[in-house]
Amino acid sequence: MTASDASGLPQHVAIIMDGNNRFARKNNLDKGDGHREGKNVLDPIVEHCRKLNIRALTVFAFSSENWNRPRHEIELLMQLLVDTIHEQIPRMEKFSIALRFIGDRQRLSPTLQQLMQHAEQKTAHFTAMTLSIAISYGGMWDIINTAKQVAAQVAAQQLQLEDVDIDLFGGMLSLGDLPPVDLLIRTGGDYRLSNFLLWQAAYAELYFTQTLWPEFTPEEFDDAIAVYMGRERRFGKTSEQLLHEKIEKK
């Protein structure tokens, strides 16, 4: 698939990158090697999205629940995140992609927090695409955190309670300035959202694949896009209503 096929493409794709440890077991590798292999898969997917003129890609790198994993695995994942950010900055400059991070940064090391902030500042002016990496992120945390912000503004009389609606609240969430998630892909064979972008993906089309993340390719990404483009997105309306609206636009 090329950019010439752009009609009907999703504006915002999210990916739950699952299956690194199972890939390591499958190939008799050390557990950490699965995460290392998974890190290398991200670059071709990002470049492919850029070629397709997809506006935003958001990937789930480390969830709020992942803090419950063994300490050695957490330390490895944190180091891989540091390595990834260092590697991504020149790539973002090459492809004019803005890099940002979402999640609860308070649990991250000061070094990682500073590196994330540096990467965001250095790439903020790029407009070709936005790559968002979710680190220490959970959808429930995101909603609660935003609710606290709204409550604080109402208490300070900076915001009237009656002004709080879906658009205002959604705009204050992580990624609130980006389009809602159109397509959410999960690799690794599990069929759940795992607390990822619960609000932002409320109307996303879901694509689940048995493929483990280190084996995921741009070709399978195209398969997911093809499935997405073959679905009818009704947003609560009927097929007949959509057809009538389409006729009226002609």
From TrEMBL:
Residues noted as binding Mg(2+) in the record, renumbered to the chain: D18, E205
HAMAP family with a match to the protein in the record: ISPT
Classification via Gene3D superfamilies: Decaprenyl diphosphate synthase-like
EC number(s) on file: 2.5.1.31
Listed cofactors: Mg(2+)
A molecular function GO annotation: ditrans,polycis-undecaprenyl-diphosphate synthase [(2E,6E)-farnesyl-diphosphate specific] activity
Protein name stated in the entry: Ditrans,polycis-undecaprenyl-diphosphate synthase ((2E,6E)-farnesyl-diphosphate specific)
One example of a Gene Ontology biological process annotation: cell wall organization
Amino acids binding substrate: 19-23, 31, 35, 63-65, 67, 69, 186, 192-194
Lineage of source species: Bacteria, Pseudomonadati, Pseudomonadota, Gammaproteobacteria, Moraxellales
CDD domains: Cis_IPPS (cd00475)
Family per record: Belongs to the UPP synthase family.
PANTHER family: DEHYDRODOLICHYL DIPHOSPHATE SYNTHASE 2, DEHYDRODOLICHYL DIPHOSPHATE SYNTHASE FAMILY MEMBER
Biological source species: Acinetobacter larvae
Oligomer and partners: Homodimer.
Purpose of the protein: Catalyzes the sequential condensation of isopentenyl diphosphate (IPP) with (2E,6E)-farnesyl diphosphate (E,E-FPP) to yield (2Z,6Z,10Z,14Z,18Z,22Z,26Z,30Z,34E,38E)-undecaprenyl diphosphate (di-trans,octa-cis-UPP). UPP is the precursor of glycosyl carrier lipid in the biosynthesis of bacterial cell wall polysaccharide components such as peptidoglycan and lipopolysaccharide.
Active site, UniProt feature: D18, N66 (proton acceptor)
Enzyme class, UniProt record, top EC level: transferase
GO cellular component, one term: cytosol
Cofactor info, note text: Binds 2 magnesium ions per subunit.
Entry keyword set: Cell shape, Cell wall biogenesis/degradation, Magnesium, Metal-binding, Peptidoglycan synthesis, Transferase
InterPro entries: UPP_synth-like, UPP_synth-like_CS, UPP_synth-like_sf
Catalytic activity line of the entry: 8 isopentenyl diphosphate + (2E,6E)-farnesyl diphosphate = di-trans,octa-cis-undecaprenyl diphosphate + 8 diphosphate
Highest taxon in the source lineage: Bacteria
